[in-house]
Amino acid sequence: METWLALITDVGFPAAVTFYLLHRIEGKLNTLIESIHSLPAKLR
Predict the structure, then answer these.
(1) Which superkingdom heads the taxonomic lineage of this protein's source (predicted)?
(2) How far is CA 23 from CA 5, 11, 28, 29, in A?
(3) Is residue 5 part of a domain?
(4) Is 33 a member of any domain?
(5) Residue-wise pLDDT tens digits, 21-33
């Protein structure tokens, strides 16, 4: 049990920050993908 607790303590904070940043970036990526898909129609 102590091994798991140490692992969570060591890796938990970076993992939490990573998931937070991925969550924030996901919305921006979706907007970018939609813009790229609509670009050919705007260029006509």
Answers:
(1) Bacteria
(2) 25, 18, 9, 10
(3) no
(4) yes
(5) 888 999 999 999 9
SS (H, E, C) 9-36: HHHHHHHHHHHHHHHHHHHHHHHHHHHH
Q: Is 23 part of a structural domain of the chain? A: yes
pLDDT range class, residue 19, cuts 50, 70, 90: confident
Q: List C-alpha distances in Å: 18 to 25, 27, 34, 39, 44.
A: 10, 15, 24, 31, 40
Q: What is the pTM of this model?
A: 0.53
Structurally, how many domains does the chain consist of? 1
- Whether 39 is covered by a domain: the verdict is yes
Residue range of the domain that includes 23? 15-43
